[in-house]
Amino acid sequence: MTRHEDLKIENNIAEVMQYIGEDVTREGLLETPSRVRRALLEICAGYRMNPKDVFKTFDSDGYDQIVLLRNVHFFSMCEHHMLPFYGTASIAYIPDKRVIGISKLARLLEIYSKRLQIQERLCEQVTGDLETYLQPKGSACIIKATHMCMNMRGIKTRDAEMVTSSLKGAFLNEPSCRMELFNLLKGE
What we know:
Blueprint: H1 3-19, H2 32-43, E1 57-59, E2 67-78, E3 84-94, E4 98-100, H3 102-113, E5 116-117, H4 119-134, E6 138-147, H5 148-151, E7 162-169, H6 170-173, H7 175-186
Parallel strand pairs: 2-5
Antiparallel strand pairs: 1-4, 2-3, 3-6, 6-7
Helix pairs in contact: 1-2, 3-4
């Protein structure tokens, strides 16, 4: 981005601040439009990342049982109100011929969570890419999150947690695989 584009965005942010009643010339706010612009670029860095780049795979050496990464913490921004939602995701797959490093599962979640999102789509994007690039026997993504758009405005709930899942392949079609996954998620 050019400095001209940066200044244009910062001016827009200052206009929003004025719209809500703030004095943008107040000492504590002089650099706020620049900080907000930089924060948005960091929070939404997923738009500048390609999920396909995550998928360096390895031969499974015959391993064909569930691979599960539990409790991966994430932050995202609700596309409806541009307010944060945050929580944990658990990502699983059953290898066919290839495996992927576990850190790459967390990286895949990061790429999609650093975009304006809805939780349901976030689950689907993770499993969709696992299906496309890894081609496992099954994939799953289960997300538990707190949405600030419900805590700070509207209904103003506290401690409400939204849970979503996306199950593909064996996790969707084979009850025994689904049951094993859910037992592993509970720590059994």
